[in-house]
């Protein structure tokens, strides 16, 4: 069996998705779950990019053990110094440094001659090696580079001490057969390549990131880079869950071994989606809600006769249990606990009374309680209300007229009520919250979507605000859309210092 290393960059390239800004607490929570999933390397951020990113890499390095924690840098000494400083307390640190190698990037962006680029790359790797042994070198835009030049720069960084060479298709331009050929070319044309690991890092601009990554693996790559749910710059990165399950379902054919626990895939995907506010499309491979649903009669007939007629993956393998019990207001604590345990939660007996009360409140509003409702009940869909709690909302609206909202918030134990007029009920509620908190914020984005099924489905509101030079994302969940929106807005404001 050949061992394939999984390099997760959800917290670095994933966070480069438009609209995502995660704070240290959120990043740490995702990092811990990635360690539970069992990825080998976790890219925690780009320490030189901001004090917040520096802090995240530092705290993840300190707190998350049993895994390689990595930070990204340019081939710039200051970036490398900061990265090494952030990784000081990491058990198994790695610096990921690199520079662009394609003609267009070197000439137009870096404004450097190819030989100058090689020099910077060598110097950066040597500088990083002063701090620690494990240094990965990325050749940005490798797929559009001149392959002789690429082989030459890899040869020189390997001589300077790189332990991993990364071949990115930075702009997602490759097709699988071409990308496989590139990896083969590097394997056969770079002296001493067998001393280092080859990594592949693909983007999804043509929808081929996973296919290209697998072609790279077939051509001999030792490490694959990607993100959970495929989030990332522009159209995103290779979705790690797709690579994991492609390997898992093809194990006997490809003989590739991974250290991950596939049962954690669904929980990791949910957590990343919930914290980043980026929904997973229902038809998304592996982790979409429809990925294991069979809708048409001929398929349902086949499944009832033999599951494998239409199912290549047993959903339980990725932590999605088959649902056999229908939960409703008539269900008791045993059924609720049983289903929660099937979904991977470990509710304490002491928690069950409160959970059951919350469950009944919801069940009274809905005929059937779905798994999505239970995830919300267990908190993976409801954010903590740090400091600001929405206690009461009352809205008056009459057709085309403006709406009026009266809102009561509890801030650090004190209840405050105020009212405002807005263009519609949600606007009026947000304005009332602004009056109470006295914060100057600009609403950047607002969306509401259903997170469960049924007529009284839970609405999940996501609000993005801009204040003090930063973006803050808040989430709120309720069967009432105005209530969900108010919670999301209060959640975002509670993240301001
Ligand atoms: C392919 C990728 O995904 S790479 C990772 C992308 N991630 C990020 O960009 C993280 C967020 N970025 C940032 O916080 C900032 O851009 C910083 C801190 C990195 C740099 O900020 P600034 O110093 O203000 O530079 P700015 O971003 O405007 O320009 C980039 C500079 O770095 C140079 N540069 C870009 N990549 C590299 C590299 N890998 N190695 C060396 N220099 C590089 C550019 O040529 C440019 O140099 P110039 O100022 O001499 O023209
Ligand atoms: C920094 C590198 C690995 C990258 O993200 C890319 O080239 O896409």
TrEMBL record:
SMART domains recorded: LeuA_dimer
Region (Regulatory domain): 389-497
UniProt binding sites for Mn(2+): 13, 201, 203, 237
Keywords, sorted A to Z: Amino-acid biosynthesis, Branched-chain amino acid biosynthesis, Cytoplasm, Leucine biosynthesis, Manganese, Metal-binding, Transferase
Enzyme class at the top of the EC tree: transferase
EC number: 2.3.3.13
CDD domains: DRE_TIM_IPMS
Domain Pyruvate carboxyltransferase, first and last residues per copy: 4-262
Family, as annotated: Belongs to the alpha-IPM synthase/homocitrate synthase family. LeuA type 1 subfamily.
Protein name in the entry: 2-isopropylmalate synthase
Organism expressing this protein natively: Dehalobacter restrictus (strain DSM 9455 / PER-K23)
């Amino acid at each position: 069996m050949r061992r394939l290393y999984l390099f997760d960059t959800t917290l670095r390239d994933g966070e480069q998705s438009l609209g995502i800004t995660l704070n240290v607490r959120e990043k740490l929570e995702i990092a811990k779950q990635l360690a539970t999933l069992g990825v080998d390397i976790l890219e925690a951020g780009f320490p030189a990019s901001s004090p917040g990113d520096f802090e995240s890499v530092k705290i993840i390095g300190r707190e998350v053990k049993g895994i390689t924690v990595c930070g990204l840098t340019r081939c710039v000494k200051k970036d490398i110094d900061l990265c090494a400083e952030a990784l000081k307390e990491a058990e198994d640190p790695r610096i990921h440094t690199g520079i662009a190698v394609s003609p267009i990037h070197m000439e137009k962006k870096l404004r450097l001659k190819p030989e100058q680029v090689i020099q910077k790359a060598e110097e950066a790797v040597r500088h990083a090696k002063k701090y620690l042994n494990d240094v990965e070198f990325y050749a940005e835009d490798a797929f559009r580079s001149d392959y002789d030049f690429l082989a030459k720069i890899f040869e020189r960084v390997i001589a300077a001490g790189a332990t991993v060479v990364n071949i990115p298709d930075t702009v997602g331009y490759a097709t699988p057969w071409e990308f496989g050929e590139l990896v083969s070319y590097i394997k056969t044309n770079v002296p001493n390549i067998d001393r280092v690991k080859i990594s592949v890092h693909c983007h999804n601009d043509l929808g081929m990131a996973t296919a290209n990554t697998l072609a790279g693996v077939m051509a001999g790559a030792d490490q694959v880079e990607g993100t959970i749910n495929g989030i990332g710059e522009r159209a995103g990165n290779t979705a790690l869950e797709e690579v994991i399950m492609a390997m898992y379902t093809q194990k006997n054919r490809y003989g590739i071994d991974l250290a991950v626990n596939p049962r954690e895939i669904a929980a990791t995907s949910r957590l990343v989606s919930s914290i980043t506010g980026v929904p997973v499309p229902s038809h998304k491979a592996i982790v979409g809600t429809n990925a294991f649903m069979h809708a048409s009669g001929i398929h349902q007939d086949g499944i009832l006769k033999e599951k494998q007629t239409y199912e290549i993956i047993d959903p339980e393998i990725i932590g999605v249990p088959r649902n056999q019990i229908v939960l409703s207001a008539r269900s008791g604590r045993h059924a609720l606990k049983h289903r929660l345990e099937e979904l991977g939660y470990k509710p304490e007996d002491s928690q069950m009374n409160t959970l059951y009360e919350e469950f009944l409140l919801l069940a009274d509003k809905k005929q059937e309680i779905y798994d999505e409702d239970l995830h919300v009940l267990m908190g993976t869909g409801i954010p903590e209300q740090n400091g600001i709690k929405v206690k009461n909302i009352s809205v008056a609206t009459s057709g085309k007229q403006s709406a009026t909202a009266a809102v009561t918030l509890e801030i650090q134990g004190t209840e405050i009520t105020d009212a405002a007029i807005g263009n519609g009920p949600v606007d009026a509620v947000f304005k009332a919250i602004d009056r109470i908190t006295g914060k100057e914020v600009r609403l950047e984005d607002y969306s509401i979507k259903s997170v469960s099924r049924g007529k009284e489905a839970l609405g999940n509101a996501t609000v993005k605000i801009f204040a003090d030079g930063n973006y803050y994302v808040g989430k709120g969940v309720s069967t009432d859309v105005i209530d969900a929106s108010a919670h999301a807005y209060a959640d975002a404001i509670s993240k301001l210092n």
